[in-house]
Amino acid sequence: MLNKNRRITFPVIVSAPSGTGKTSICRFCAKKLKGLKYSVSVTTRPKRKGEVNRRDYYFVTEDEFKLWIEQKKFIEWTSFHGFYYGTLKEKFESMLENGYDVVADLDINGGKNMMKRYPEGVFIYLLPPSMGELKRRLLKRGTDPLSVISQRLSKVFEEVRYAKGYTYIVVNKTFQTTVESIILIIEAERLKTSRFETYLNHLKEEEWRE
Amino acid sequence: MLNKNRRITFPVIVSAPSGTGKTSICRFCAKKLKGLKYSVSVTTRPKRKGEVNRRDYYFVTEDEFKLWIEQKKFIEWTSFHGFYYGTLKEKFESMLENGYDVVADLDINGGKNMMKRYPEGVFIYLLPPSMGELKRRLLKRGTDPLSVISQRLSKVFEEVRYAKGYTYIVVNKTFQTTVESIILIIEAERLKTSRFETYLNHLKEEEWRE
């Protein structure tokens, strides 16, 4: 969307296997990079230790979520391991219109939905350094029973194949390097000619003279 | 081209109106960024003060240049203000094959030729902050007679329109900021999924297990 700085703003969708810490990675990117806002998702899953309502997620009941689906309040929504996740249309679009790029962490399905809606968006997939490393991370977090972890791991390899549909791949070595890579990608994407198209089309020769 | 690091290397073409200092900008980028090499062009134009043969250009006679055209030694060549400029095929390709990304500063025609040959390449156009600023720079450099400067300026606005064919636009405010932006773009481009395609296609599940 074209804003007053005459640059077209864009969504940045970050996907990763569960247990990557993608929510805190994305929130931190928005804190560090000027002009970037974090899109807080709505979910029906229970709040985990350390999570804050409205900062990490909007925690709602299944009834509320279903009502909002009917009211078409979501740009995209999906269900995963029995819980619902969604992105609020009005909030998301108003950030773009107000001149911000918007980063959202979504699962593969959410990512795919956003690719259809925002083909000009930036899609980043965080790849775990290895399966063993991912397993260790999930166990260390200790929020999920072993059965869920094992179920998740078996889905990871399948997911890795999806990474090919994304524009960028970041190997998620450490929190710090991953944040740096995402910020780097967004800064480069801001320099893309396509983000200035309207501006260039309306460029008058006089603007170049002093 | 796929190298031993299993990443596909790519050419980075930087174009700009004359008088932008794009040669020293590109050379400096290659000095600063690991894995990036500068492609030295061949030219028939006279050596300017401070320029070094084989570092800035290969300075050759018109006869030599024409012979090399016949021998198909160039990936691309063009003539500009009565002089020839070209890129040596063998050198350029061997750098890519040996695992380096390669940055070259070329004029608009050279850029267009490279777009056809390397559609996966990265094309950056350096836009002057304003026409007045560009005029001041050309006058300050003092290497060209006023008639040439005026001829160049009249071509600049036309060139700006070509910028739209490039992938990225960098407003050339200072040497430092421009170098930083180009390096940023290359680092982000290295994370593109398409640069890993062969690697991802051959990914075996075992590689992810420890």
CATH level-four homologous superfamily name of chain A: P-loop containing nucleotide triphosphate hydrolases
Most strands sheet of chain A: 5 strands, parallel
Order of helices and strands of chain A: EHEEEHEEHEHEHHEHH
Largest interface: A-B, 36 and 34 residues
Overall pLDDT score of chain A: 85
Q: Give the CA-CA distance, first to last residue of chain A.
A: 29 Å
Structural class of chain A: alpha/beta
Indicate the radius of gyration of chain A in whole angstroms. 18 Å
Tell me which CATH architecture of chain A applies here: 3-Layer(aba) Sandwich
Record field, number of beta strands of chain A: 9
SS strand fraction of chain A: 15-25%
Could you explain the architecture of this structure?
Helices cover 41% and strands 20% of the residues of chain A. With 210 residues, chain A is α/β, with parallel strands linked by helices. The first copy, chain A, has one domain (11-208): 3-Layer(aba) Sandwich (Rossmann fold), CATH 3.40.50.300. In chain A, the strands form two sheets. In chain A, strands 2-7-1-8-9 form a five-stranded parallel β-sheet, with helices on both faces. In chain A, a hairpin with a 2-residue loop joins β5 (74-80) and β6 (83-88). In chain A, α1 (22-32) packs across α7. Chain A starts with 10 loop residues before the first strand and ends in a 9-residue tail after the last helix. The model of chain A has no long low-confidence stretch (mean pLDDT 85). The A-B interface holds A 125, 128, 130-133, 156-157, 160-161, 163-170, 181, 184-185, 187-189, 191-193, 196-197, 200, 203, 205, 207-210 and B 125, 128, 130-133, 156-157, 160-161, 163-164, 166-170, 181, 184-185, 187-189, 191-193, 196-197, 200, 203, 205, 208-210.
